[in-house]
Amino acid sequence: MSIKLKSMAVMLLSATVFAKEPPAPPAPPPMAMKAAELNCEQPPHFEQLSQRLTLTSDQQSVIFAAMKQHCETMKAAHQTMADTMKHVLTPEQQTQLDKLHRERTDRRHEHKHEHEDGKQRR
User: Fold this and answer.
1) How far is CA 14 from CA 9, 28, 67, 88, 118, in A?
2) In Å, what is the CA distance from 58 to each residue of 48, 55, 67, 69?
3) Which among 41, 33, 48, 11 has a CA at the least distance from the CA of 101?
């Protein structure tokens, strides 16, 4: 089996496992938005992290650059995976995958709002 075919098989298997994931954990994921929606010029949570850790300007520069690079890498990886799956999946499978993505997004948004509501009550 070629490496390309093995990679595609692993991605498809991952999608199957993804569909059977248990409900989201109690804490919301650090990045609850799609990779395509990320603004890598202003990495998510940088300001909050900087304030909470009281980072020095030198630390901010290094961490900002690392977070920006990570964001860009994740965006590219997400796009590559999406493009590969689009070419491999049948139209029916793509429809099912789109449904799974919508359900996961809905769960994340629900969980995020629950978490925000909990913060407000304290």
Assistant:
1) 8, 21, 26, 14, 32
2) 16, 8, 14, 17
3) 33
Return contacts of 39-47, CB within 8 angstroms, 24+ apart.
40/68, 40/71, 40/72, 40/75, 41/68, 43/67, 43/68, 43/70, 43/71, 44/71
Name the 3-class secondary structure at 40. Answer: coil
Question: What is the crossing angle of helices 57-88 and 3-19, to 10°?
Answer: 100
Nearest CA among 36, 68, 74, 33 for reference residue 49:
68
CA distances from 38 to 21, 41, 96, 101 (A): 24, 9, 24, 17
Mean pLDDT of the chain: 77
**pTM of this structure:** 0.53
Q: What is the mean pLDDT of residues 32-46?
A: 74
Q: Residue 58 pLDDT > 90, yes or no?
A: yes
Structure tokens at 120: 């407000």
- DSSP secondary structure code for residue 1 in this structure: -
